[in-house]
Structure formats: structure tokens, C-alpha cells
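# nightly structure sweep
# worker-07 picked up a monomer target from the shared queue
# config: single-sequence mode, recycle default, output format = C-alpha cells
# input follows
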Amino acid sequence: MFTIMKKTFIAAAAVLLIVSCGPKKTSQELQDEFRTAIEQIMDSYKAEELSEDQVESALRELCTATIKKNPDDSVALMALQNCYYLMDDEDLSDVIGELGKAFIDNEFVQKVRKSIGARKGTSEGAMFTDFTVVQDENDPEGSTVKFSDFVGKGKYVLVDFWASWCGPCKREIPNIAAVYDKYKGEKFDVLSVAVWDKPEDTAKAAKEHNVVWNQITNAQRIPTDIYGIDGIPHIMLVAPDGTIVKRNLRGDDIEAAVKEALGL
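# output follows
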């Protein structure tokens, strides 16, 4: 009981640092306090006083409180930039709506709005959106592939958007490999799509981690802009007819989604 109260206090104290009343503060003071609050939360995580879920919750609360308290100050934009990827689209839209008029046309804010719209158009239940990638600029004719070359072809396809430099991406590869080995065949396949990465680095990492299934390399921002992907890994399941079944799969949820889709 004491441990739970301590964790709650740590998270609440960081938020309180931002929203407490007092003399009007300068923008620099607000930004310094925001950075300090984030450091407190992350220090608590490193000390194993907060779990990963509790850290994410605390960061969301901190950022939301910061924006609501200071909608017209640049610290609000700083808060959005630090935490937007931790929020679901409904909460994110609400938070953006709290921003002052000065930030409506901000490039980053517009980018986030665009991502929300992209995710809405490619949400679960929607048909996949096709894209084309030139994998080797020295051989555009021989290396050009389409997403539709791999999905919507009568199989369930698990699609993994990843990059060689991404630690969490590489940690998911064993989970994907296990599912591939167990269910590959006439009804199921896997496709890796390398984004935000150098092709040579992708090839090296794929070999090191035994990525033996279909791959699209050098996709860069093409698919992530289309699907509103702000962070990787982003793993989704596409049905035989091209309908998006699930998005944002991780860990044990990957196999659970595949088993359910295959009726096993």
C-alpha cells in the first residue's frame, strides 16, 4: 500500500510543479519547470519506483496539465512535442484544441493534425491504402514494389513497420518470428517494411536478426505518412481482402490477434 501511494505521489508531485498557483512566471521559467518535472518522472522510472505504464500516464497528465494551464505560452507547444505520441487520437485532438490561437498554424501542430487524419482514414476496419517504394535508386525499374504486391492477396498478413536502429523494433522480431514459424502457409504471411532507415543498415540488421520473410526496404516516410505512424515498431494485421484488422500490436497481442483471425 505504501509503495502504491509513493508512486502516485511521485507522479502527482511532477504535475503539481507545473500547475501550482503563484506569481506569473516567464516562459523560460515555465519551460525549466516542465523539464524538471519530466526529469523527476524519468528518474523515478530509472529507480524502478514507477512502471512503464505509470510513467506514460504521468507524462500524459503532465503534458495535458501544462497545456491547459499555459495554452498561449511556448511551453504548451513543448509539452505537446514531448507527449503527443503517448496519447490516443481522441485525447490528442482535445489537447490540441486547448492550444492558443498562436499555435493553430504551427508546422508541428499541423503535422500532428495530419497524422490524426491519416490514422482515421486507415483505422481498423478500413481498406489498406497502397503505396509504391523504389528500394534501390540505382535500379528503379527492378527494385520498385507496391504494398499491394504483398497484401490483399488472399492471406492474412502481419505487417511490421520497423528500422534497424530501433531497439523496441528489434525486441519484437522474436515475437514476429515465432508467429511466422507457427502459422505461415496458405492463410498467413509476414511482411516487414523498413522505414526511416538506410537500406544497407536494414539489410545488415535483417540478416543479424534472421528476418527471412518478405521485406520492403527504403520505404522512408512514404507509408508512415499514409498510415499516420509517429513511432515504431508499428505492427498491424491485414485481412485476405485487404481490410485492416488490427493496428498497434505488441508482444503477446501479436499471436493472439493472428490466432483469432485464423479462427484457432
